[in-house]
Design brief:
heterodimer; A: 3 domains; 81% helix; globular; B: mainly alpha; 2 domains; 7 helices
């Protein structure tokens, strides 16, 4: 019974949260209030964990909440439930897209969607840069520009940028190296 | 069957290394799916991302479903999506069962500060590569700048427009502009 309820709640979340993983947050807070499966503090913890593990917050939260309420099967079931609505919708769109790729209207829509898409990728990059490359609180406190930039992070960024252009290594390798550099140089 | 297993396994690998939301996944998808396997093109990937923005669910998940469907219809979509979910599920189950305060461990924090720097650079490079096929004329450049400003600094406005709304507006603007162009071309004839 609890498994059914768990599934229902996470299908609902998956269906109504549009856009990135953070869009699931309002639904998670609501679920916390109405079911008591996890607390608001649990959600805050999970945001931190999600930032430091692979996977989106919505996915992680469903696994966590499912596990807390019904053990390992609960964790797996809740996660699959979260994914279910979007899988169905994407399957329908994929069919549609194959058929209408050459339609003038679809072409026109993509003419506008493409620059919008990379604009949002740029904004996402800026958001990461705000925490990875600069230290805004330190700058506000001291007012000196040299405190604004996290110099060792900037150096690493330049090295990765150049390295990626020169060496055709996998991005995964660069991620692993960056993690090691972060630990060794105490980022 | 082999095809499905390969799809599943490829997405398990991708699921292991997608830190920091959907877009951070783009460079890894490019490497694994475009360069190594030729399963899709960078242009298709970008289109999947823009569709994923305005449909329910997590973008990275939507993109996995798209590529799975393209490679192997319904079974392919299921293989890719469950593959993508596998690693995060296992990791969170382990953390939930054994570790408390995982995110507060100093080693974890340092490692992820390093990873964030890398993710940043990877995203910049993805933008540079996609630029050519996306920003092709003054109209698309203006659209790029407007959407970027609204998305990055929308918090300064009284109401911040959600990404899904921005995507819908951009799509509508694209349709309007291409109809306008077609109308002009038609008028000349």
């Amino acid at each position: 019974m609890i498994l059914l309820k768990l599934m229902f709640e996470f299908i609902k979340t998956g269906l109504f949260s549009v856009g990135g993983g953070l869009a699931t947050l309002p639904f998670l807070y609501e679920m916390s209030d109405s079911t008591g499966w996890f607390t608001h503090a649990d959600i805050a913890d999970m945001i931190a964990v999600s930032e430091s593990t692979p996977g989106a917050i919505g996915i992680n939260m469903s696994t966590y909440a499912g596990f807390k309420t019904a053990g390992v099967p609960g964790g797996i079931l809740a996660t699959l439930a979260l994914a279910l609505p979007s899988v169905i919708i994407i399957l329908i769109i994929a069919r549609f897209l194959n058929k209408f790729r050459d339609n003038k209207l679809v072409e026109g829509a993509f003419y506008g969607l493409r620059p919008a898409s990379i604009a949002m990728i740029t904004a996402a990059g800026l958001n990461v840069a705000k925490v990875a490359l600069v230290n805004i609180p330190a700058f506000q406190q001291s007012g000196s520009l040299s405190d604004l930039f996290i110099w060792k992070a900037l150096i690493l960024a330049v090295l990765i940028f150049v390295g990626q252009r020169k060496l055709k290594w996998s991005p995964v390798l660069f991620i692993a190296i960056s993690a090691a550099v972060g630990v060794i140089f105490k980022f | 069957m082999n095809n499905l297993l390969e799809l599943y396994w490829t997405f398990v690998k991708i699921g292991c290394v997608t830190f920091g939301g959907g877009y951070a996944m783009l460079p890894i998808l490019e490497r694994e799916l475009v360069e190594k396997r030729g399963w899709t093109t960078m242009d298709d990937l970008r289109d999947y991302f823009s569709i994923g923005q305005c449909t329910p669910g997590i973008i990275a998940l939507n993109v996995s479903t798209f590529i799975g469907e393209k490679r192997g219809k319904l079974p392919g979509a299921i293989a890719a999506t469950t593959g993508f979910l596998s690693a995060p599920i296992v990791i969170i189950l382990i953390i939930a069962a054994f570790l408390t305060n995982f995110a507060e461990l100093a080693v974890v924090q340092h490692a992820f500060a390093g990873i964030r720097v890398c993710v940043c650079v990877l995203i910049v490079q993805a933008v540079l590569r996609l630029w050519k096929g996306s920003v092709v004329d003054p109209f698309t450049l203006v659209l790029y700048l407007v959407i970027f400003a609204l998305n990055a600094f929308g918090g300064l406005l009284p109401v911040k427009l959600p990404a899904a709304v921005l995507v819908l507006l951009a799509g509508a603007a694209g349709i309007a502009m291409s109809l306008h162009k077609a109308g002009k071309a038609g008028g000349k004839k």
